[in-house]
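User:
I study polymers; will you set down one protein's sequence and backbone structure tokens?

Assistant:
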Amino acid sequence: MPAAALGTAEWYRHFGTVDAPGSSPCYADWSLHIADDPELIARIDQWPYNKRQPLLMLAATRFLGANVSPYPEFRRFLDEHWAEVSRTVMSRATQTNEVGRCATLLPSLRAIAAAEGRPLALIEVGASAGLALFPDRYSYEFDDGVTVTRLGPGGSGGLPEPPVLPCRTAGPVPLPDALPEVVWRAGIDLNPLDVRNPDDVAWLEALIWPEQEFRRERLRRAIAIAREQPPLLVAGDLNEQLLSLAGQVPADAALVVFHSAVMGYLSADGRARFRATMQGLAHDRGCHWLSNEGETVIIQEDGSAVLPDMEPSRIGGNFLLQHNSRPVAITGPHGQSLDWL
């Protein structure tokens, strides 16, 4: 999320020129027009700051039935449905549950399991519907021909056909030759989504950008898998719930706490508290910490940046993956790429 000093029009203009192009021409076009629409910006400015973010507003319109269209048609939709858009924005949050990110986490998870010599227990903070808690149930295709998949048609145990998660790689990625064993999984979210609730599923689909039908298809496959064995999801603040949830982890499992695109929603004090909790878990429990966050999130205690020395274009628009606070890779925000450092 941009810093609070960024005005609403600039926020939408940044989204339309930096974030959306190449992923959604529709969202890029709508956002740039919104940025140049003072009357609409004035309406959006009536919402609390954290509710003005472009993706939340645009997802709310898609949830309510807005079609891909030229901006004048979209603008008419906003005029006709503004009260409903406002209600949806105020009652929902950007809880994109992008299962593609499992592809960028998989090499680290497999390496942790191998180094520990035991199965994994996973806790995701900011878990949404918990779909990223099933990295052992999905199939993967890395661009050098390496395929990692579950055994048997439709996966083992007669479960639904898994999504196939493609990922471009660069650098010395430690590509896994098998999936890690996961014996326990749980998540924390302020407002967990239920894969058995049609309204929550519709919201997850609305959060996918319009032209990305491949993401919508793999979301549906992941939901089908999660419905077979819904994960344990705890409602509440991650700083309030993490230690008690970690206390439920089986003693013979290696604990991994992970998150993607979550820290930007915490205050600096909240991030400092979370960091301290993770340091305590590492000391007391031998916990591993995988952080997959945007470049603008500062998580160092002294306020310094954690980025390695590199060309700014390499990280721009991407995430930094860290293992126990050590940068290990640049990742695509939807899991589409893994550039090992």
Observations:
- The radius of gyration is 20 Å.
